[in-house]
Amino acid sequence: MASGSLAEATQSGASADARPGSARPVVTRFAPSPTGFLHIGGARTALFNWLYARHHGGKYLLRVEDTDRARSTEAAIGAIFDGLSWLGLEGDEEAVFQFARTERHAEVARKLIEAGHAYRCYMTQEELAAHRAKAQEERRPFRLVSPWRDADEGSWPAAEPFVVRIKAPREGETVIEDLVQGTVTVRNEEIDDFVLLRSDGTPTYMLAVVVDDHDMGVTHVIRGDDHLNNAFRQLAIIDAMGAIEGWERPLYGHVPLIHGADGAKLSKRHGALGVDSYRDELGILPEALFNYLLRLGWGHGDDEIIAREQAVEWFDIAHVGKSPSRFDLAKLQNLNGHYMREADDGRLASLVAQRMGGTANLDLLTRAMPVLKVRARDLNELAEGAAFLFATRPLPLTEKAAALLTEDARARLGSVHEHLAQEADWTVESLEGSLKAMAETLGIGLGKLAQPLRAALTGQTTSPGIFDVLVLLGREESLARIAAQVATPAGSQV
């Protein structure tokens, strides 16, 4: 735990992966705030909740915590839902919107007041500031002791503004058997009488979360460990409502946050982008990001490649580590390369065509995928690798490709053109045999023909196998590209 935090965890190890009771099927939830994109940490939280529910045959729900009306936007809500859908993490029921439940939250606050578990606090901002200043002067933590905590209802001012505060327990301690962190204990004297309803009657985050979790039937709260301190305050509400209406505590699993590869807090410089950026800008496949997020803080032996179905079978909270995981973009890209090699050629061709403006020949792209996808780690590299297929003459050359096309090389290309023009069987096997025979006749290595031929056909020094390139381009286009370079002066890059 961070220094100075409310909670102090014991080193007893994580609790068993269990349900709160056989009569309560597992219900998890992911509850993002729509103030921005679906970031990588939020996506992993959603994934762990989805997997836990699926593993136990339970239910996974979504809740949009949109009570911050100034910062919540429809665009952010759309981006979050879009990212979840892309990863296959849609909720099992229609999403709940927290702001629409404001009256229900206030209803619970009123019940707490009526039962003596909460109270109206009429302290002014000046009085609160004075209490904080005194605590600071005495160098002690600020714990509010409101004179209104035990005041009779008859003493309430008729028309003065007030907030509603919980009557937090003052004695004893609160213990959480956290499924990730283990046994975590807080002395109740450290829990302040926090606000439930603001002076304008709107609920605070603490109250809204507790009420929504209860009403949604949530049995397991799996979230980042930056919320661990919140759990103790939220339990004060849950236990109070338990005394009134029998509310049950959920089980908690507070997952360590994600850090960068250097161990520092994850930021944009580490690759902490929105999920949509991994898809749209970096060209990552959803199954690759799913697998990578799964392995960020959770493991199953030495297994690295874990399919969705296998993840559901294997996932448990007990194997989520207590230490922060480290995000490594290069590892994600390498993993993505594996999933690209496994992906359906037609699907990849369609995704690449979108990156090429949708004008590329989809049939040609599909036929090219087997030789292109083995060379790429992401869809961007795949699109770059496919660009030569649709280049127009005169073919632009990279600097290295132009350097290969010396006067001698162009002379050989002229001979290659004449040789290939006589080739009737335009297949990989036939072309390979024909050019190898030509190289032997000339007394040179095949590379002396293949390297300038690659430059002439693709404008680059790297490409799929040269015979695959010839077949993909076809007889007419291949011969035309070779002829164009034969006719171009040596040293030209056009």
UniProtKB/TrEMBL annotation:
Name the residue ranges of motif: 'KMSKS' region.
265-269
Whether ATP-binding counts among this entry's keywords is yes
Q: What class of enzyme is it?
A: ligase
UniProt KW Cytoplasm keyword: yes
Q: Which UniProt keywords apply?
A: Aminoacyl-tRNA synthetase, ATP-binding, Cytoplasm, Ligase, Nucleotide-binding, Protein biosynthesis
Positions of short motif 'HIGH' region = 32-42
Binding locations of ATP? K268
Give positions of region: Disordered. Answer: 1-25
Q: What is its EC number?
A: 6.1.1.17
Checking InterPro entries in the record gives: aa-tRNA-synth_I_cd-bd, aa-tRNA-synth_I_codon-bd_sub2, aa-tRNA-synth_I_CS, aa_tRNA-synth_I_cd-bd_sf, Glu-tRNA-ligase_bac/mito, Glu/Gln-tRNA-synth, Glu/Gln-tRNA-synth_Ib_cat-dom, GluQ/Sye
Instruction: Provide a Gene Ontology MF annotation, just one.
Output: glutamate-tRNA ligase activity
Reaction equation(s) it catalyzes: tRNA(Glu) + L-glutamate + ATP = L-glutamyl-tRNA(Glu) + AMP + diphosphate
Similarity comment text for this entry: Belongs to the class-I aminoacyl-tRNA synthetase family. Glutamate--tRNA ligase type 1 subfamily.
Functionally, this protein is described as follows: Catalyzes the attachment of glutamate to tRNA(Glu) in a two-step reaction: glutamate is first activated by ATP to form Glu-AMP and then transferred to the acceptor end of tRNA(Glu).
| Protein's name in the database | Glutamate--tRNA ligase
